[in-house]
Amino acid sequence: MTTCFRKFLVETFGLERLGEGEGVLDVAGGKGQLSFELVNLCRGVRSTVVDARNTDTINYRKIVDRHKRLAVKRRAHLRRKQPDFDEQNAVPISVDSIPYEVPGHVVAYFGPDLWRRDRDRDPDREKAQERARESWERGYGGKGRREREATTSTTTTTTTEGEKPKEKKKKKVKPGSRYRGVAHDIVSGTWAAYIRQQGETRCLGRFGSEVEAAKAFDAASLEAFGPEAKGLNFRDEGVGKGPSPAAGEHAGGRHHAVVMGCWVCGPVGRGGEPQRAIQPAAKCDDGVSGYSQHKSFRCPHNAARSGEQIRPRRLDPEEAARVIAGCSVVVGLHPDQATGDIVDFALETNKPFALVPCCTFSQTFQDRVLADGKRVSTYEDLLTWLRQKDDGRIKQTTLGAPGRNVVLYRTEG
């Protein structure tokens, strides 16, 4: 989908148009795949990602490695087509010779307060944006970053006529820690660290935050076990509580150590549910909390499990304001809650845009209404609602990729 959208942008707007001013503004660009392709495969084009994800959680290593491999193949193919090419004496192309550039990132949620600054404040619009931001946090920003205590809606059981229906309430999901050897005390609101040595569990104290407890656990683990702490099977030594010996291998039973995930990824899923252990455990075992695991580039969820991590450059507020104001085209590939704001920004600033909508978020944006008064509740309604923002000038086409592939765009500014 990303490559198809990038080719569409080049064919529709042209390299010269995309490269004007501060370049392309990639809203809700996530890990930066689209911007990376624009910067490295489109001559003279710059692109900047606007996304609320912290740059510390973004690693371009996998994208860069793939880019280098494909570049080597392209160069080798072009070299073989040369009439004087001598395959026997040809020097192999090194991946280290392939240049690349990582796009800059604006770490912010894209909304009116970002591009309007202190002018034209709209209280109703700000409330809508706050709802969108909260929705984004639940889906992306809250992964392992805050306590979860989610209460689900009640369910009613069917009964015979005359009987009072019984309501069953699902239990609250207790907040869990994203670190190994760390437990949360709901009553006191503190975080405790526990270490296990020679079959006995010892409390290391109570702390005000998860990170403090995790660091205390790491220090005690390294002191007790030395450098070998990173290779410990922490089911037996190192952590306060391990899986049941009867647990299956996939859950870290007799033959594998359980892997709970790192300090960025959680052991808790997006909806507050415990994540399954990850296999194979041997690749992820470090015997410490998971904070050190991620810092040591051993995160089981990380695209680059070893080696150098490539972080994007985070733009300061002044540079971010200049890039947003001077961008040539604003784009969004499945930008979720920022979909409507992309069109609003383009219309207010008179800029061309291209957008591939995805989710409707009808519960978050209950104030979205079509021209005929119908509430926006389906994907087709969303497309119609977006086109009606500038009826007659916003065009629609389809990308040659599966999934939500409808593009809404406006070429004139």
Secondary structure elements and pairings:
Blueprint: H1 2-18, E1 24-27, H2 33-41, E2 47-51, H3 61-80, E3 104-107, H4 112-115, H5 123-141, E4 155-156, E5 167-168, E6 182-185, E7 190-197, E8 200-207, H6 210-225, H7 291-295, H8 317-326, E9 329-333, H9 339-349, E10 353-356, H10 379-387, E11 395-398, E12 406-410
Helix pairs in contact: 1-2
Description:
- By secondary structure, the protein is of the alpha/beta class.
- The chain folds into two domains: 214 residues, Rossmann fold (3-Layer(aba) Sandwich); 108 residues, no CATH class.
- It has ten helices and twelve strands.
- A seven-stranded mixed β-sheet has the order 3-2-1-9-10-12-11, with helices on both faces. Strands 6-7-8 form a three-stranded antiparallel β-sheet, covered by helices on one side.
- Strand 9, helix 9 and strand 10 form a beta-alpha-beta unit.
- Helix 1 crosses helix 2.
- The two termini are 25 Å apart.
- Keywords: DNA-binding, Nucleus, Transcription, Transcription regulation.
- One of its GO terms (molecular function) is DNA-binding transcription factor activity.
- It is found in: Nucleus.
